[in-house]
Amino acid sequence: MSPTPAQQVALLEQCKQARYMWNLALEQWSMWTADQGPTPGYVEQARQLTEARAAFGWLRAGSQTVQQQALRDFDQAVKNFCSRTHRRPTWRKAGRHEGFRIVGSQASRIVRLNRKWAKINVPKVGWVRFRLSRPLPDVKSYRITCDGLGRWHVAFAVVPPPIEAPGTGEIVGVDRGVTVSAALSTGELLSCPGLSNREQERLKHLQRRLARCCRGSKRRLRVKAAIANLHACATDRRRDWVEKTSTDLARRFDVVRVEDLRIAQMTRRPKPKPDPQRPGTYVPNRRRAKAGLNRGILANGWGDLVRRLEQKAPGRVEKVNPAYTSQTCSACRHCAPENRENQAVFRCVACGYQAHADVNAAINIAAGRADCARRETPVQVSPTREPQLATSA
Prior knowledge:
Layout: H1 5-31, H2 42-55, H3 57-60, H4 64-82, E1 98-103, E2 110-112, E3 117-122, E4 126-131, E5 141-146, E6 152-156, E7 171-176, E8 182-184, E9 189-190, H5 197-212, H6 218-252, E10 255-259, H7 263-266, E11 273-274, E12 282-283, H8 287-299, H9 302-312, E13 317-320, E14 345-347, E15 354-356, H10 357-367
Parallel strand pairs: 7-10, 10-13
Antiparallel strand pairs: 1-5, 2-3, 3-4, 5-6, 7-8, 8-9, 11-12, 14-15
Helix pairs in contact: 1-4, 2-4, 5-6, 6-9
């Protein structure tokens, strides 16, 4: 979007009021007790909103459409949480959750200016120009957001048709990692583009400058804007890679098998370990190494890739138990920790099969070989070793 400075102020005010209504509804829902009867729904909260708009002028100056839609969105979020399909609604913070949604007849008030530009009538803001990135669909709702870099975007809610399967019957396994973002069972190694070495050095330099800046100073604001610019570049590159990779996999293969990973649990902070010998102190828990691993997992877009695959190829994405897929030989199915020498090299100690470790794991995922679980494997004869019984402890 390309709003004027006055329109940016008005848009931020709308974001502020939508965030206020969401947090107010969340506070009411969180503090409601059983002796007060059923939790107020959207109808009761809309009635309370009407009374609040009559009492407070600053709330009355905003768009009632935006405020009511924030209550509708929260009511739907509560229903999704109660049905166990989504997480619990959380607080929205200024500077991080800047946006609001418009649904209804006002969402269709769009005028196309030329081949690249159009304008949309936002309530209490006026006509705002935006650049067309694709043909306009049948609009029923849209969301206006502002990212950390101060860029405004308008996104129209449309459910695109799923990508049709090629019909070749091919199955591919995808092994996600930190060094190699996605390794395919076909032998392809895909890497998610991030910040270059020069950009990473600049990010460290800016973060050190930020630590020395005084809070509230203009220099601190400039440094924060420069850091946000680098993070926005990394986010845009990751999203672009996820979109292109997921579309390519959905078009080339009938079935895509991935590991069933709990990314939210994998990226949690390590809990502190109290020292039993010295009460009040803690033993090292390798939190720095865990923080680096968490950043690597999130920077490679593990969850975004699978989520977009499930949306583009519904019913064709299968999740496999990831247990021992990286330690199992894809040739003889011998499972042992010694098979994987390091991050990149896999060499089976039973049959001598050697391959890239991530590609070997992807082949096991494609074959659905996740139930090995260190069971006793049959005798394998190696050309360089004596026959041995491969057991697992």
